[in-house]
Amino acid sequence: METEIKLNTNHMEHPEQMLEDTWLSALCMPGSVRVIEMDSRYFDTSDAQLRNQNVSLRMRQENDVQIVTIKAGSTSNSGLHQRMEWSAVLPPEQSDWLDDPHKGFDTDWFMRTAVSEGDPDDLLFDWLRQIAGKPLCELCRVTFTRIACDIGFGDTLMELAIDQGFLIADQQQKPVSELELELKEGDARDLMALGDELQRRFHLALESKSKLERCLILNERGTSDVG
Known about the structure:
Elements: E1 2-8, H1 22-27, E2 34-44, E3 55-62, E4 65-77, E5 80-89, H2 96-99, H3 107-113, H4 121-131, E6 137-153, E7 156-169, E8 172-185, H5 188-202, E9 205-206, H6 211-226
Antiparallel strand pairs: 1-5, 1-8, 1-9, 2-3, 2-6, 3-4, 4-5, 6-7, 7-8
């Protein structure tokens, strides 16, 4: 289960400068700051087999590594996002479908290799069986630079990530700028408390929608403009 808080930083010209703040930098674990170039592509069947069940299929390039992730059952309560999540590193011999998604996705490979943090595999297998052998189409794309660090707060370990880039859908693009605070180990109450403090100190607002949700809205607007 992925548990995180999203905070909108669109009003900030250089949100990465928050990491230079004395209070916040003291929470960052020494040597944990890292920069990752992200390129996320989202796929589904032409009849929205996954979206209709609140499931997403994402291939993300993280610097030199490709990772396939399926997320499902997204809930948002007071800014806290929780989703089931399974991921697997994509080896070169499994990457052909990215050039031609109509070939379909090797669901058997994903069933064998994907890992999660205790989410029920029977649900994953059911969704995969529904798209096995079916052509896929690319829904949208999100490209961004992530500056991340590990945070210790209370008795809890979290990852703080500042993302800046673009939502891309239907030949349109829109800037995206946000801060993500993800629970790695410990108590979600510490996550909420740190999220509240970040909002107060840096005048941030909760972001209720995922990057994919905002991308799909952009896609719908583009379709309606054409129609």
